């Protein structure tokens, strides 16, 4: 009976993940549809794009929470609620750090690059790519990869 319960819990976790994945409205797809129908610059198009952008952000946050609650998909018993709390708090700290610190640094880099003309220094490109790599490592460490 215990094995049956584990299979049901695993199925429920997969259903939560699939439901969240399928509920995400594809921002680029809607953008192409509106551009093809020449509705991109109309009031309806602008409203649809704003709503889709907001929906996309909210859905990805919910998807990250679903992944945090479900876990890695391994069927090795129950998962502590502290792990989900760790993922939630660490994710919020990561986003706040990115919005406060990294955004300020990237604005400084953008000002330096735009004032020099057409050429972008290779050091700024390497800095940006290294930042992306570090961000990927940190989100993997947190568990919201």
What would you say this structure looks like, in words?
By secondary structure, the chain is mostly helical. It has 2 domains: 1-38; 40-142, no CATH class. Helices cover 80% and strands 0% of the residues. The chain contains 5 helices and no strands. The chain has helices at 2-23, 27-36, 43-70, 81-115, 122-142. It is flat and about 65 Å long. The two termini are 33 Å apart. The relative contact order is 0.09. The mean pLDDT is 79.
Helices and strands in order:
Layout: H1 2-23, H2 27-36, H3 43-70, H4 81-115, H5 122-142
Helix pairs in contact: 1-3, 2-3, 4-5
Notable features of this structure?
145 residues; mainly alpha; 2 domains; 5 helices; 80% helix; flat
What's a quick, concise take on this entry?
By secondary structure, this protein is mostly helical.
**What ranges have pLDDT less than 50 throughout 5 or more consecutive residues?**
none
Give the helix/strand class. mainly alpha
- Helix fraction, binned, reads over 70%
Q: Report on the biggest sheet.
A: none
**Individual helix count:** 5
Number of domains: 2
Instruction: Estimate the global geometry from the Cα principal axes.
Output: flat
Radius of gyration: 20 Å
Order of helices and strands: HHHHH
The end-to-end span amounts to 33 Å
Strand content: under 5%
Average pLDDT over all residues: 79
Number of strands: 0
Keywords: Ion transport, Membrane, Potassium, Potassium transport, Transmembrane, Transmembrane helix, Transport
GO molecular function: antiporter activity
Protein name: Cation/H+ exchanger transmembrane domain-containing protein
Organism: Cannabis sativa
């Amino acid at each position: 009976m215990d094995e049956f319960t584990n299979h049901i819990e695993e199925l429920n976790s997969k259903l939560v993940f699939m439901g969240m994945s399928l509920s995400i409205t594809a921002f680029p797809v809607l953008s192409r549809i509106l551009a093809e129908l020449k509705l991109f610059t109309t009031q309806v198009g602008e409203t649809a794009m704003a709503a889709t952008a907001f929906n996309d952000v909210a859905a990805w946050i919910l998807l990250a929470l679903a992944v945090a609650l479900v876990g890695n998909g391994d069927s090795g018993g129950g998962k502590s609620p502290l792990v989900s709390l760790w993922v939630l708090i660490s994710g919020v700290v990561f986003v706040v750090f990115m919005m406060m610190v990294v955004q300020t640094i990237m604005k400084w880099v953008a000002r330096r690059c735009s004032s020099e003309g057409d050429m972008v220094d290779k050091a700024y490109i390497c800095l940006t790519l290294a930042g992306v790599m570090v961000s990927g490592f940190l989100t993997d460490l947190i568990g919201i990869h």
